[in-house]
Amino acid sequence: MPRATVLGSGPDMRDLTDRALNTANGLGAGYADLRIVRRREESIGIKSGRLEGVASGETEGFGVRVLVDGAWGFASSHHLDLREADRVAALAVRIARASATALRTPVALDDRPPAQGRFETPVQEDPFTIPIERKIGHLMEADRAAAAVRGINFTESSYGAQREEKTFAASDGSYTEQAITHVGAAVEANAIDGDEHQRRSYPDAGGGWAAAGYEYIRGLDLAGNVERYADEAVQLLTAPQCPSGSKTIVLDPSQLYMQVHESCGHPTELDRVYGTEASYAGTSFLTTDKLAEGLRYGSDLVTIVADATAPFGMGTFGWDDEGVAAQSVPLIQNGILTGYLTSRETAPRIGRASGGAMRADGWNRIPLIRMTNINLLPVDGMSLDDIVADTDDGLYLDTNRSWSIDDRRLNFQFATEIAYEIKGGKRGRMFKNPTYTGITYEFWRSCDAIGDASSYVMLGTPNCGKGEPSQGAHVGHGVSGARFRNVQVGVGKW
């Protein structure tokens, strides 16, 4: 496995972390931590055979977070030197003291052992060593294959890669190094006839993303797969409208992962539950009293975990940005609410230790509770094909097109790129413009089949937004497809 050169591996970075932490402690901080982050990114965009843009960039800096008199302070800088370490640490302490004057409840952190070690994403082909011309060529080939399908009006193809090299140190003796690599690519084929616009995306609408190297991009075989999707986009122009009514639906993994993201991942963020995100991202219907009462969130088949150790997951790491080790945390167990995504500050409020869900978008942002890999665990017994074969009358919904959900994550509507009729256990004719709606807990209670491990895939999204100022996060979702009964499909009365 190629080894990335990690910022923070030399003695100079040790000197910087020690200097900042000693300064913060000397000025009265009861706790202090520091993150040094170097991020490298690359992206390619192609539209209808034309290279629209190639971008690459690198940033580095550090941020110091302190607790003084029960209040947080944070400051950051892109200058990595000892004088700046003193200045930033002192500024963080001053901010914390000012915050303490308006403090209602002092911050209390859970106990954990000091974090020590190193983590790297397993990478076979370092994406940043592949010549840019070769990556453009791969993407161009896929774009041409989609554009060659008769009836396609325009195509869009994209590639992205990110490596984040992080050093974490804290006043409790923690010191960790990480090198996390993510890559993704996608092709979108668009067909237009008058006011009618249809699209199909491969591998999914969010792009195929994974914690891996360029070998993952090769494995997608974009050029070898896009023709079928482009042909479907053209066929959708003349396909019948998806019927409305109370239906049995089977969700493909390309749609189910987004359902999990919006109606399972976000409502289990404990900072949302406590109202921290109310002004921007919203709150959650999963209040802590529902944890105490053992809310029936879904059917007995539904088990959802936040697993930061899952292979290829966009939310996989060695430690979160508080130095808490990666772990698998049950959120929903056999349909019952059992936990939340937590931090060292929020977890004690429900009598637990942090599940390691704190991450920051770079060196100049504070850590927030973020999804790791929110996975709907497979159920032995039926593959996704078996579920279709077991469905007498229903719809198969594939690839997210849009979503809408209220700020409590309770009432939702999703649209997918395509639907297929299921009759007598077989997939038949396609329908265009499918939508479905529901109430989160009613929807998950209606789940009566989940695919087994043979259908299980790890998908992800690189642009989950949260926080003020806004922060993006890479998150993952393991899913295998599932069936739901009596779901409201389409728009109208039924």
Task: List descriptors.
494 residues, PmbA/TldD fold, eight-stranded mixed sheet, 10 helices
Biggest sheet details: 8 strands, mixed
**Number of domains as seen in the coordinates:** 2
Low-confidence runs: 1-11
Share of helix among residues? 10-25%
Shape: globular
Q: Round the Cα radius of gyration to an integer and report it.
A: 24 Å
DSSP summary: helix tally: 10
How far is the N terminus from the C terminus? 57 Å
Structural class: alpha+beta
| Beta-strand percent range | 35-45%
Mean pLDDT: 95
β-strand number = 23
Give a description of the structure.
By secondary structure, the chain is α+β, with helices and mostly antiparallel strands. The chain folds into two domains: 11-236, PmbA/TldD fold; 245-489, no CATH class. The chain contains ten helices and 23 strands. Strand 17 (411-423) and strand 18 form a beta hairpin. Mean pLDDT is 95; it is low at 1-11.
Summarize the structure.
The protein is α+β, with helices and mostly antiparallel strands. 22% of the residues lie in helices and 38% in strands.
List the helices and strands and how they pair.
Layout: H1 11-26, E1 31-47, E2 50-68, E3 71-77, H2 82-100, E4 116-120, H3 132-147, E5 154-170, E6 175-193, E7 196-202, E8 208-210, H4 214-220, H5 222-236, E9 245-251, H6 253-265, H7 270-273, H8 288-293, E10 304-307, E11 328-333, E12 336-337, E13 358-359, E14 368-369, E15 374-376, H9 384-389, E16 393-405, E17 411-423, E18 426-431, E19 435-439, H10 440-445, E20 447-450, E21 457-466, E22 471-479, E23 482-489
Parallel strand pairs: 4-6, 9-16
Antiparallel strand pairs: 1-2, 1-5, 2-3, 5-6, 6-7, 6-8, 9-23, 10-11, 10-15, 11-12, 13-14, 16-17, 17-18, 17-19, 19-23, 20-23, 21-22
